[in-house]
């Protein structure tokens, strides 16, 4: 699965990374590499199956997009 990752400089320094097709999937890091590494971790957690109160496991689905970086 390919996902679009948007990497932007943060006003306070460092970088913010987000995945538009995964609402709320946002991370940040002091460097581009760190922000990119952390958003990959956030994506893995976001896509991990979750169990609801009734014991049913569901998986959040995302649309396919191309991965890229934006300054």
Describe this structure in words.
The chain has 71 residues and is α+β, with helices and mostly antiparallel strands. The protein has one helix spanning 32-47, and strands at residues 6-9, 15-18, 26-29, 50-51, 57-58. The strands form 2 sheets. Strands 1-2-3 form a 3-stranded antiparallel beta sheet, with helices on one face. A hairpin with a 5-residue loop joins strand 4 and strand 5 (57-58). The longest helix has 16 residues, at 32-47. The two termini are 23 Å apart.
Strand content: 15-25%
Q: Can you tell me the overall shape? A: elongated
Range of helix content: 10-25%
**How many domain units?**
1
Q: Looking at CATH, which topology would you report?
A: Double Stranded RNA Binding Domain
What is the rounded distance between the termini? 23 Å
Radius of gyration, taken over Cα atoms and rounded to an integer in Å: 13 Å
Q: What is the spatial order of strands in the main beta sheet?
A: 1-2-3
Mean pLDDT: 80
| Low-pLDDT regions | 62-71
């Amino acid at each position: 699965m390919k996902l679009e990752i948007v990497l932007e400089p943060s006003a306070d320094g460092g970088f913010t990374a987000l995945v538009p097709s995964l609402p709320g999937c946002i991370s940040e890091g002091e460097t581009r590499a760190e922000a990119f590494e952390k958003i990959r971790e956030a994506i893995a957690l976001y896509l991990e199956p979750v169990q609801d109160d009734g014991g049913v496991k569901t998986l959040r689905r995302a649309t396919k997009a191309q991965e890229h970086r934006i300054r």
